[in-house]
Amino acid sequence: MGNPAPPYDVVGKSVPQLAAREKAAGLTRFVTDLSLPRMLHGRVLRSPHPHARILHIDTRKAKALPGVKAVATWEDTPKIKFGPRSEDWTIFASDKARFHGDEVAAVAAVDPDTAEEALDLIRVDYEVCPHVVSPLAAIAPGAPLVHEESPGNVAAEFNISAGNIDQGFDRAFAVYEDSYYTSQVYQAYMEPMSVIAETDLSGRLTLYTGTQIPNMMRMTYAKALGIPPEDIRIVVPEYGGAFGGKMENNIHLVAAVLAKKAGLPVKLTYTRHEDFLAGNPRVPMHIDIRLGATREGILTAKDVRVVGGAGARLVYSQVIVSTACYRVDSLYRFKNVRARGITAYTNTVPTACYRGFGNSQSTFVLESAMDELALRLNMDPAELRIKNGMGAGETSVHGWKIGSSGLKECVEKATDAIGWKEKRKVKQPLKGIGLACCNHVSGNRPFAREFDGGSAMVRVGKDGRVMVFHGESDMGQGQNTTFAQIAAETLGVPLSRVHVAQVDTDVSPFGLGSFATRGTLMGGNGVMAAAKKALAQLAETAGNILCVPPERITCRRDMFYDVDAPDKQLSFGVVASQATIARHGAPVVGTGFYKPPTELPDPETKQGNISPAYPFGCQIAEVDIDPDTGQVTVTRMAAAHDVGRAINPMSVEGQIQGGIAQGLGWTLMEDMHYGQGRLLNADFVDYIVPSAFDMPKIDAILVEPEEPNGPYGAKGIGEPALNPTMAAITNAIHNATGVRITTLPVNPAQLLARMKAAGSPGPELARNQNDRQDTH
Amino acid sequence: MTLPPLHIIVNGEDHHLMVPANRILLDLIREDLALTGTKEGCGLGKCGACTVLLDGRPVHACLLLAHQADGCRVDTIEGLADPAGTTLHPIQEAFVEKGAIQCGFCTPGMINTAKALLDENPTPTEDDIKLAIAGNLCRCTGYHKIVDAVSACACGSGKGECHG
Amino acid sequence: MRITPLEYVTADNLSQAVELLDSAGPQAAVLAGGTDLVLNLKKKRACPCILVSLQAIDGIDRICLENGMIRIGAMATHDRLARHPLLREKADILCQAAGLIGSWQIRNAGTIGGNICNASPAGDALPPLLALDAAFVTAGTVGETVISARNFFTGPGQTRLPSGHLLKEIRFPCPPANAAGCYMKLRRRKAVDISIAGVAFQAALNEEGTQVASAGIALGGVAPTPVRVPGAEDLITGRSPKEALENARAIGAACVAAASPIDDLRASADYKRTIVNVFAQRCARHVLTTLKEKGKPQ
């Protein structure tokens, strides 16, 4: 039985998502569209204060309101401290509310109006406490304590070093040093968080919800509710986007508590305002960087300090801060690096994953610093990247083994596509062009300790219908379609035969979920392994019928045939039917898994190999600056991404364009503003995200070096699509104005002031100034 | 004072309904008529997910009281394909084929706005399209393929077929 | 988001609407397009007991030119204003502003009357109306009143609309053929955003085409109400467009002097002043250059 070889029939083809027609017709049932008989509607009462002691909660009037079926507070929960990676969560605030929006009480009623009316009837006596919002202020002496048991508000610390940092800087000809800040930004998936919870007579809980991590979430919630994981079932319907934001959140547990109390299904959907207040936005970070290189442009040392704001409890911010400390170290051939990271509790909404997972923040900083070094070295920024970029077969400073790398090709293709050389050479006033690179992972060994691979089941029915079961999560990015393409290619059937089952923890394999750009590689390899197992069983049946040993049987374009006598054929449908008949009705089921060749980093040295594959990319932005207002317009972008093989090129392009839109929003407009500790722009009126009119033309370029560990050579693309965008734009702003942006988002008023203060020098002038500094 | 029954024509079908004055059109569509293709993304008229066509013009169903639609035609995404639902409208086909759909939550509203645009201007420029859909937020696609899909439906786009 | 139960009445004609308003008193609210009112009902910023809908009243959205006056019915939507051929020809500044309001969806529902009566300092239609010397015709049980746009606004959300009255019509003298106007607003993204600071600039030449005979310059978003800037207008009127253009910087400065912006999360007061200065000068250049071309050769 031979493996398919290129050219492939299904893999590498641009196809619409399996669900696209249903979505276009408006027939797809999203989480917010679902309802169950006698379902109640939940609403949450939230703290109006960023930090306050809860003295008393009076729910009597709310309970008495006709139509109210349950009112819950901390007292109605198992009172267990829990968390995905910590024990600082409770279902509902217990003694204190720790952020504006913290869950204080909740109501379930026969309709949303009654539930909302009941909220107004709950009286809470608060004693307001001093609060702290800024991560740096939080770790300063004397700051108010978010959790009394965490002195100094230090939630976690991370230290890493490799090589000899002092020797590295000693060898440097040019050193750049500066402090950066990246804002707290919101994922702004179009469907707000929503869940339906119901409990059966045995007490078993079912959650219908859009989540990226159905299986891991179940483990966390089992602890929170004090029940075994098998007493929780999570079903994942189609849902409207996540981008990192739909993982553990109290919404599910509040609904579960209400459903149990009321004995009826409870639906809880966040209003957009609530989703801002109580979602899990990006970790804001202060990053200080020092970066050195030789006169020839060889990087010698990198030293960073990261302080990230966790908000009021740890979701994944501590892992995100550690990622920010060192993931970029494998973009270039670093030898000497050091990083110290502090994750600080603050009185804001708990922060967590958002596309890029800390690598976005540090890529912005490193790639800004790289341009500053290029300036000091009088070197083309593209050349500096190529000179230091990690290539295939190399091992990074932390032990990461780079199986494939298209970094150089990405830089070359992006620069060619946009005319980089000419545009850098012939400088036009108030126009700029900037470039940034990125690296990432396709799976993250240390994130889930027990294992990091992927698995699937492929069921072939008597009717020849192929159903793929996986435990990852298609949040709208098209993962199911990619899996179906992999299964179809492996089985040798047309895509139309293959379907992908809704994730249901009662049925699906224990997949880790969709994060760390792991779906295509980990999940895809799992699907491929399972499909091979199913194919082997079918080949046996086909071989029996054709009187040929199964090793000689293969399937392509829906026909089984003898590789030595290709005219000996049987259709896939016939074989599927015969296989089931031979088994007295048992379906053909292939179960397969993928164990990646990764190494858990050493706890001390952090040496290891955290992912089976590492995607790279290069993005280039062109900007126009309004000299009088400081407004920035991104006029064009080229984005070349090393994705291994693109299983579905159209889908990969969509990831790149969508990632850029989010990166552009972060760079130019997105920030969660706090005043008096309260989130001031918790809506789409004042939290602005890019509209169609803000988006430039984007050349999405796919660079496809075969990845040895990838299914059909594929790596991931989700997060890399966003990671270089911020620095590409701000490097272009620097090219246009000479102003180095060190705070995201760009504030036009400040840009204008700095342009004026600098007499708005072009980069020529800036370079001369820097040259003078270097000679002192 | 009792309100007279509300008369609206939804996707070509007449409805006479007793509707309280404080009922939002979006809730009527989604809950009373179970047409869940129209989405609620923000409830405040800022995201466009609830876009329906009121007498052919795109509006936010979340910012209209149901009674404001009295006597009007309301077209939702469910009315765009043929009644059997087997043949999609050319705009829907273009969204599918061009990869303009990722999570799909913005799609119904986006398609409705595109439909209204193409109805009144069968040959929109790229900027016309971007301005028309500027009130329909999409967080997945970066709008690139959405603009491609709408462009593909324009007269003279080479598809040889003018929609509407 | 729950809206408190209330009554809803659709008025068949203007007098019925006025009577309903009069009898319900302050507990009534006028429903035009609803894009602001429904939002405020949802956010509980408004809790009226009765809504009086104007949408069935015949002719209340009419746009026409009569006896040298342009008349716009209060229920005309922003989208109609933005595209109306008469307005495009005679008062394009209003079309520009209406076209920049919200999204297409908002422009299809929201009305100019609503924009005026909500009296948001950021309301896009307001500065152009001030610049055009518009007057607002209001209707009450005992008759109509006419209030100039300059005097109508008293603070954020506050107007001189007499109690029990509703806004019926907007009128302004039809600008002559040799007039030009420009509206610019600061936004945080390229489309669909609230105005953070706006400048409206309208000017017309004398019949000979030699001098600027009249000018209206107004600002939005930088004071509790939209404001006219007579100090800037004086720098233009009675001068040839070429001479007036030389005053561009002074025009900017006069506009800044008339602004009293506040710091908010959208922008700092300083930055709003900068923008007023820049946009006033840009508007001046655009309008005066257009007028120069329209004027007779000197």
Overview of this structure, please?
The complex is a heterotrimer of chains A (776), B (164) and C (298). Chain A folds into 3 domains: 151 residues, Aldehyde oxidase/xanthine dehydrogenase, molybdopterin binding domain (Aldehyde Oxidoreductase, domain 4); 150 residues, Aldehyde Oxidoreductase, domain 3 (Alpha-Beta Complex), CATH 3.90.1170; 333 residues, Aldehyde Oxidoreductase, domain 4, CATH 3.30.365. Chain A is built from 20 helices and 29 strands. The longest helix of chain A has 28 residues. The C terminus of chain A is likely disordered. Chain B has 164 residues and is of the alpha+beta class. The longest helix of chain B has 14 residues. With 298 residues, chain C is of the alpha+beta class. Chain C starts with 6 loop residues before the first strand and ends with a helix. At the A-C interface, helix 3 and helix 19 of A face helix 13 of C.
Keywords:
heterotrimer, A: 776 residues, alpha+beta, Aldehyde Oxidoreductase, domain 4, Aldehyde Oxidoreductase, domain 3, 3 domains, eight-stranded mixed sheet, five-stranded mixed sheet, 20 helices, 29 strands, globular, disordered C terminus, C: 298 residues, Uridine Diphospho-n-acetylenolpyruvylglucosamine Reductase, domain 2, Uridine Diphospho-n-acetylenolpyruvylglucosamine Reductase, domain 3, Enolase-like, domain 1, five-stranded antiparallel sheet, four-stranded antiparallel sheet, 13 helices, 14 strands, 36% helix
